[in-house]
Amino acid sequence: MGDTEETTTDQPTRDAIMEATFTALTKHGYAGLTMQKIADEFDKSKSLLHYHYDTKDELLVALLDYMLGQLDERLALDEESDPLERLTTLVDMLLFGPDREAHKAFQTTLLELRAQAPYNEAFREQLTTNDAAIHDLFVDIVADGVEQGTFREVDPDAVATLVFSALQGARVRWVTLDEDDAPDELRDALFTYLVDELEPEDDA
Amino acid sequence: MGDTEETTTDQPTRDAIMEATFTALTKHGYAGLTMQKIADEFDKSKSLLHYHYDTKDELLVALLDYMLGQLDERLALDEESDPLERLTTLVDMLLFGPDREAHKAFQTTLLELRAQAPYNEAFREQLTTNDAAIHDLFVDIVADGVEQGTFREVDPDAVATLVFSALQGARVRWVTLDEDDAPDELRDALFTYLVDELEPEDDA
Fold it and tell me: What residue in B sits closest to A158 (Cα-Cα)?
């Protein structure tokens, strides 16, 4: 479409589109979201928005991909640093984000997208990609920890499954129940009864 | 309303109403659900349905309450039995239900109701009640286990939070991702890296 120069989205434009999508989504929720409402949050030329995306679902899949990239950037996990430190950073980023209130708003709308996933293949595929990518971050950290002797001989894949599932559950409890301390309580329990138990001393 | 004898719902009628609501919900999803579609699944007099419930949301809150009661009945946890056995029974019931496919269908629609909870106070309150009741089942089991020496001296509340959050997360992954083994993988990891670690031997 359009014989313009924007055959690929440049980064500032992509950032602006994703920010507008995020703002409109948290403001109106999935059911109330329309392309027009996203355009309303977009300062640049509306044609730029429509040039790259046809539907709100396309924009939301792009947003899920974008959020995964942002997580990677924000983590900037130094692979040389202590595995326990990296694990803590990842847990805290997933539970609290860079800003607690914004993170809660995002998790609330993310749950709406998750709830659509059984009926929406594009959402399901992107969520599966994101889930696998985050799972792999945990696997790498735990495997490094085992190799370096920070953790005892555990199965990194199983530990990753347990930790990530617990975080997911706590986030769902946080945004759906009157339980504002859900992520804090889960974090405490997770370190006391799971992460601390990974220390090699427990093998003695 | 109605000068009839049904001032309270008798149990067979309540069962039939809840089954019709459940069937209609799993068939049409929350967004597609209407009172008429619930009535379509109800074999008895439609007036009976409308006599007791005005809106689909009222029926859904009643359904959440009813499912909690069913969980209690199905568990029929013998308080004299081994805490580890009771814990296993509860974990398996929450992960797999009495029938795996029906449980997946229910968890799928339950997620839709959860996603409404931030905007729907009645859903949020009932989900908070259900969550607290199940949390308390875990707390009681772990506390009994500590008292009887089946488990080491752990904080039952924290362990309950961790176990239940992990189950919740696995159920969400199960119904939203292309991950049909999610509950089985979580169950294995949970017993290996959390429940088995509760044994008092680990204190030695």
Answer: B189
